[in-house]
Amino acid sequence: MCLAVPGKIKTMTDEDPLLRTGKIDFGGIAKEVSLAYVPQARIGDYVIVHAGFAISIVDEREAIRIFETLRQMEEAQH
Q: Domain locations in the chain?
């Protein structure tokens, strides 16, 4: 199963929209992600990431709701 998860943009590199990447914080784990599909994204925005690509921007409340749902799913497995 593939899962897209939210993360917060901490830094961004390269101004070319097709080459732009960002360091995304996933609750304490940071990964470098392509931002080519979300050219309007800015530092501080939450994005949904799938397979190394940010695919959409999501508001902070929705990101927090998703984090909570994922946490509950993890607890249910234990």
A: 5-77
The separation between CA 2 and the C-alpha centre of its own chain, rounded to angstroms, equals 15
pTM: predicted TM-score of the whole model, two decimal places: 0.85
Q: What's the rounded Cα separation, in Å, for the pair 60 and 76?
A: 24
Task: Identify whether the C-beta of residue 47 lies closer than 8 Å to the C-beta of residue 62.
Answer: no
pLDDT along the chain (78 residues), means of 10: 85 88 93 96 96 95 88 86
Domain at 5-77, CATH class? mainly beta
Phi, psi of 31 (to 5 degrees): -135, 150
